[in-house]
Design brief:
With about 180 residues, the protein is mainly α. It is about 75% helix and about 5% strand. The protein has seven helices and two strands, in the order αααβαααβα. It has helices at about 1-5, 5-45, 50-105, 115-120, 130, 135-145, 160-175; strands spanning about 110, 150. The protein has a two-stranded antiparallel sheet with strand order 1-2. The longest helix has about 55 residues, at about 50-105.
């Protein structure tokens, strides 16, 4: 609920859309052009085994298709890398806000945080890279899977955390 209500999450999503929409649109446009070219090649009656010009055109088409696929994969990797970086920042903000609200309200909470297990287990030193989430979705999933081990039945700080996050975020982004 905190993640979905945090205004920075929506702003990050908008930022990502604006950052990559030009290249995504260009790839989509080039893909449509390739599809038209492919349709044209399919109805061509020339035989590439006997017509060198047609064979070369097919080769140019296949090369263009490969280049477009490479552009798409590169864009997808860049989007995922940037999204993962942004989500790390969001999740860190959430952790800080939870700690701040919990301390201010004098709550005691015990949380299991698997991403920090290696800090407490010397045998797991050096495994940080192996445990590093590979995508933003995995990062968010790991964050959401941290179970609360203990809490007082009357404790509900979710709305206070959301309010703090959005207030703090507005003060840092308002000119």
């Amino acid at each position: 609920r905190v993640f979905n209500a945090y205004q920075k999450v929506k702003d990050v999503q908008d930022k990502m859309e604006k950052l990559f929409s030009t290249e995504r649109n260009a790839i989509e446009k080039d893909g449509l052009e390739l599809k038209k070219w492919e349709d044209k090649l399919k109805i061509d009656t020339r035989d590439p085994k006997t017509n060198v010009d047609f064979f070369r055109e097919i080769q140019r088409f296949e090369l263009s298709k490969l280049e477009l696929d490479m552009r798409f994969r590169k864009l997808a990797e860049e989007v995922e890398r940037k999204r993962k970086d942004e989500m790390k920042s969001v999740l860190n903000d959430i952790k800080v806000a939870i700690r701040t609200v919990g301390t201010a309200e004098k709550f005691d909470m015990v949380l299991r945080a698997p991403e920090f297990d290696e800090e407490f287990d010397p045998s797991k030193k050096g495994e940080e890279a192996k445990n590093e989430p590979q995508s933003a979705a995995e990062l968010v999933r790991k964050f959401r899977e941290n179970p609360v081990l203990f809490f007082s039945q009357g404790v509900e700080v979710t709305q206070k955390v959301i309010d703090k996050l959005n207030t703090d975020y507005r003060t840092t982004t308002t000119p």
